[in-house]
Write a structure and sequence with these properties.
Among the domains are: about 1-135, Beta Polymerase, domain 2; about 340-385. The protein has 19 helices and eleven strands. A hairpin with a 4-residue loop joins strand 3 (about 60-65) and strand 4. About 50% of the residues lie in helices and about 10% in strands. The longest helix has 16 residues, at about 265-280. By secondary structure, the protein is of the alpha+beta class. The strands form three sheets. The protein has a seven-stranded mixed β-sheet. A two-stranded antiparallel ribbon has the order 6-7. Strands 10-11 form a two-stranded parallel ribbon. The mean pLDDT is about 95.
């Protein structure tokens, strides 16, 4: 078995090896290659210490030197190189008390989460698979390295990663690993909201997102107001990240705003969710005026996502909605104040000021939303003056 690795990855590995160190690509990139997929990125593991790695390359960044990670920069491309390591006991179900650098790759692989992620490879030695990861890929099975309960107690985030992988690479979880994950699920309370949201986002974009339902059944995510519901409908949504993540949270959340706040979502994503949920709750009528008013309070992308939600989740016919939206956009029909053929300065020149200016602009927008032919400078002035 031989993989064609990117030239820069080969260069980093060959440089380390030619200087007396062991070096391999490791983890998810090896899994992806064995699955016939192009990896998004490549991680390199090596027997070289961080100092030794830095000494071999002209440009490096000590991105995670405490944990043995050095970022090597080759022609502006960043490549993470991490020293083989073992980890001490975990005192918070997430972070090891200490990290020990080692020279044996088998020690490094034995600390990893799942067998499919515990393989490494270089073109000189081929694949190193100590825990049956290749066979598990063949059988499409997710299995913990060593004792599953121990792995999850060390780092509870692995529980979410397990279900995220099941959702995205569509593998079945081995029974003992599944049982241990469900038993250890309460430990997720020790994981930061940001980390939990990252894994939920990735799971939401998987083709088998409903696989996370047993985890929701444990109530381990109740602190985020999340509970189980039928998630199979999510798999019919277009693979747009924001829409799929919104749908996951909207369907499972008992209080969407609380969920968004507790998960520490960005203000932009909160705004997106708030606007989209408003459209869903208020059900836009199938007429141009209603659609333009929806465009006014949200925007084009959110209205499109709303229509997709109607079609995929609520199973409604959106043919008329899409046709009317297309007419509005193609005809440049106004639906925002900025589309009006008049400005606030024009209103001020008529003797209005302060709050009156905004009120007059909103009045004109309401009129032109109902009748786009009124969006003419003279006609708009006449509407105000008469």
């Amino acid at each position: 078995m031989k993989f064609n690795l990117p030239q820069k990855i080969e260069y980093v590995i060959d440089t380390l090896i030619s200087n007396g160190h062991s070096a391999y690509i490791v983890g998810g990139c090896v899994r992806d290659l064995l699955c016939g997929k192009e990896p998004h990125d490549y991680d390199i593991t090596t027997s070289a210490t961080p100092d030794e790695t830095q000494s071999l390359f002209e440009k490096t960044i000590a991105t995670g030197i405490k944990h043995g990670t050095i970022t090597v920069i080759i022609d502006d491309e960043q490549i993470e190189v991490t020293t083989f390591r073992t980890e001490s006991t975990y005192n918070d179900n997430r972070h090891p008390e200490s990290v020990n650098f080692v020279r044996n790759v088998s020690d490094d692989l034995s600390r990893r989460d799942f067998t499919v992620n515990a393989m490494c490879y270089n073109n000189r030695e081929g694949l190193i698979d100590l825990f049956g990861g290749q066979e598990d890929i063949k059988n499409k099975t997710l299995k913990a390295v060593g004792d599953a309960k121990t792995r999850f107690c060390e780092d509870a985030l692995r529980i979410l990663r397990l279900f995220r992988f099941a959702a995205t690479i569509e593998f079945t979880i081995e029974k003992y690993t599944f049982d241990a994950a469900i038993e250890c699920a309460p430990l997720l309370k020790n994981i930061s909201a940001e980390r939990i949201f990252t894994e939920l986002k990735k799971a939401a974009c998987g083709n088998n997102v409903s696989v996370i339902s047993p985890l929701l059944d444990t109530n381990a995510l109740l602190d985020f107001s999340l509970e189980n519901t039928d998630l199979t409908v999510l798999q019919k949504l277009q693979n747009k990240e924001d829409l799929r993540v919104f749908a996951l949270l909207y369907l499972t959340s008992t209080n969407l705003q609380n969920t968004l706040n507790t998960l520490k979502c960005s203000n932009a994503f909160k705004d997106y969710c708030t606007k989209l949920s408003y459209l869903i709750k208020n059900e836009i009528k199938t007429d141009k005026t209603s659609i333009k008013k929806a465009l006014c309070i949200t925007d084009y992308e959110i209205v499109c996502d709303y229509f997709e939600y109607l079609k995929s989740i609520l199973k409604l016919d959106i043919t008329s909605h899409k046709s009317l939206l297309k007419e509005i956009i193609n005809s440049n029909e106004p639906y925002k104040i900025s589309h009006l053929d008049i400005t606030g300065n024009d209103i001020i020149s008529l003797g209005f000021n302060g709050k009156q200016v905004g009120e007059k602009l909103q009045f004109l927008l309401d009129k032109t939303i109902e009748n786009p032919k009124l969006n003419n400078h003279k006609k708009l002035l006449d509407l105000i003056c008469n």
